[in-house]
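Exercise 7b. Backbone tokens:
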């Protein structure tokens, strides 16, 4: 039994945040590594996770307010002190469960460990924040509506501008949804969802079936890898919208399938399960480590149909035989802007230039793999982003360049529970603010 320690969770969160900022690493993997080697009580693990995700999501707004509270530019702080201030202000202004005095005291203790001379500054800034927390300023919406949205909802201005054009008045709901905690979603083995719900419930774990994907289970758990069933392969961890992609691909037992961008292997594994592990899935990825992860995941689930392959999908037609696949999935490298709940840091890393660069890669991959499809075979293009450049923009140009492809309506293929997620053009399109899911986009086409 590990006893609760108010500083330990915050110190762990601070270290994770420093690594995410300093090394450009992923928050989820960095946090998982840190938690794996920490001796923290369950409550403190949950607090550390919330602090990491919340501080990253709200960073833009926290920095804007800190600059006014301290009367200086945030960039001028020592990086560890700046992060300590963000962490403290996040608790004071956005986290109900922490009393402001505790947020101030623990932040001052963290500062004393890092840069003792700065602890008075941290104390002064956060005490002022605690006093004024009901009336901290935001940009004036009348003077600059865009700046107001960007700061109030903590997103980069360029993204808010783009999404306001795209989503109109719904943009506020989208920005707010992106700042919510991501739910934990499991994918049971096909047809075994109710058995998994019973098993988890019997172990005292709150859970319920998902709304859209037939094998999905929503669960209240900070660490799904510690749940009963993980070690014996009863479930995988996969967001519900992501689960729908293999349903749209609809692979059948005995088929030959190419998953062109497969690591870490979530959709390959799902496809293999739906094929009853009969047939072949060539699971390619450009990264050698990615291919190793695919193999590890397949072994955990006991799936033999998956054949990991290190390959660059942009030149797949140079090594794989034309017309040799019944199904092809291009789950493309994308900006990931549909997954901000689970990956809040992405919003601060992406630039507008990334979108056109990614769209070029996506088109090159599609052009290279399309000839590998056999006549009558089906191909799915999917992303976890909400930008038109990477979604409809890529698909329109791809289909125009390959006249043998016929677009198919997703609502004629996905399970009935997911039909409401299909747009007028027949694409699967999920939205965080409308469906409570990650923002995914997927289109299927068949070769004549
Ligand atoms: C969205 S992720 C795939 C997620 C995976 N389908 C799953 O469900 O677990 C995109 C993957 O594409 C890989 N990738 C990026 N460029 C690639 C390329 N040119 N060829 C093949 N894979 C590539 C990345 O390494 C990354 O693993």
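Sequence design result:
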């Amino acid at each position: 039994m590990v006893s609760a320690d108010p500083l330990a969770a915050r110190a762990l969160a601070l270290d994770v945040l420093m690594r995410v900022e300093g090394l450009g690493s992923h928050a989820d993997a960095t946090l998982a590594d840190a938690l794996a080697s920490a001796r923290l009580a369950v409550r403190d693990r949950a607090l550390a996770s919330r602090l990491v995700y919340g501080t990253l999501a709200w960073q833009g707004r926290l920095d804007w307010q800190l600059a006014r509270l301290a009367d200086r530019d945030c960039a001028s702080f020592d990086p560890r002190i700046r992060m300590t201030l963000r962490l403290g202000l996040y608790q004071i202004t956005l986290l109900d469960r922490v009393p402001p005095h505790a947020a101030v005291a623990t932040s001052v203790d963290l500062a004393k460990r890092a840069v003792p001379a700065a602890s008075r500054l941290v104390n002064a800034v956060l005490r002022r924040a605690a006093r004024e927390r009901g009336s901290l300023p935001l940009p004036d919406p009348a003077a600059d509506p865009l700046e107001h949205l960007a700061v109030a909802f903590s997103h980069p201005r360029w993204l808010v501008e783009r999404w306001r054009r795209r989503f109109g008045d719904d943009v506020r709901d989208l920005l707010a949804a992106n700042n919510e905690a991501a739910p934990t979603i499991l994918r049971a083995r096909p047809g075994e969802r109710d058995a998994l719900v019973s098993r988890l419930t019997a172990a005292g774990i709150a859970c319920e079936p998902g709304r859209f994907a037939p094998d999905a289970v929503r669960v209240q758990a900070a660490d799904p890898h510690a749940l009963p069933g993980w070690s014996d392969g009863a479930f995988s961890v996969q967001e519900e919208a992501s689960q729908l992609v293999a349903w749209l691909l609809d692979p059948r037992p005995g088929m030959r399938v190419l998953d062109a961008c497969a690591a870490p292997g979530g959709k390959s594994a799902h496809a293999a399960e739906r094929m009853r592990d009969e047939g072949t899935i060539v699971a390619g990825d450009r990264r050698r480590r990615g291919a190793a992860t695919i193999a590890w995941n397949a072994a955990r689930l006991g799936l033999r149909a998956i054949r990991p392959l290190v390959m660059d999908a942009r030149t797949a037609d140079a090594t794989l035989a034309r017309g040799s696949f019944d199904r092809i999935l291009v789950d493309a490298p994308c900006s990931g802007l549909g997954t901000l709940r689970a990956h809040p840091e992405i919003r601060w890393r992406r630039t507008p230039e990334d979108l056109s660069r990614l769209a070029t890669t996506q088109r090159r991959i599609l052009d290279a793999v399309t000839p590998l499809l056999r006549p009558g075979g089906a191909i799915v293009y999917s992303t976890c982003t909400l930008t038109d450049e990477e979604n409809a923009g890529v698909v329109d140009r791809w289909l125009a360049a390959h006249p043998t492809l016929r677009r198919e309506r997703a609502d004629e293929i996905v399970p009935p529970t997911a039909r409401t997620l299909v747009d007028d053009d027949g694409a699967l399109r999920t939205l965080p603010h409308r469906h409570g899911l990650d923002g995914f986009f997927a289109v299927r086409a068949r070769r004549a």
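Instructor comment: Residues 201 and 207 are 7 Å apart (CA to CA). The first strand starts at residue 184 and ends at 188.
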